């Protein structure tokens, strides 16, 4: 909550995937579509946005989240 950081991603991406019928396909995406696809693939691979940050920003956000969790658990 209330934690945002800019993540640099390629502006275009070519991906291979299996469609709902089981057919292997390949497609190319640009702009917002490319960003969205990369974001969703990160979810599938268990990656978080903090995995893309440097150690200082990652440490700052991790500490902030621990503090936030403590506050929520007190309620």
Task: Indicate the mean pLDDT.
Answer: 93
Helix content: 40-55%
Strand adjacency order, main sheet: 1-2
Order of helices and strands: EEHH
What is the 3D shape? elongated
Distance between the termini: 17 Å
Structural class: alpha+beta
Query: Largest sheet, described in full?
Result: 2 strands, antiparallel
Radius of gyration: 17 Å
Residue windows where pLDDT falls under 50 for at least 5 positions: none
Which band does the percent of strand residues land in?
15-25%
Count the beta strands. Answer: 2
Number of helices: 2
Would you write up a description of this structure?
It is built from two helices and two strands, in the order ββαα. It has helices at 31-44, 55-74, and strands at 12-18, 24-30. It has a two-stranded antiparallel sheet. The longest helix has 20 residues, at 55-74. It starts with 11 loop residues before the first strand and ends with a helix.
Keywords:
single chain; two-stranded antiparallel sheet; 2 strands; alpha+beta; 19% strand; 75 residues
Summarize the structure.
Helix content is 45%, strand content 19%. It is of the alpha+beta class.
Write the layout of secondary structure elements.
Blueprint: E1 12-18, E2 24-30, H1 31-44, H2 55-74
Antiparallel strand pairs: 1-2
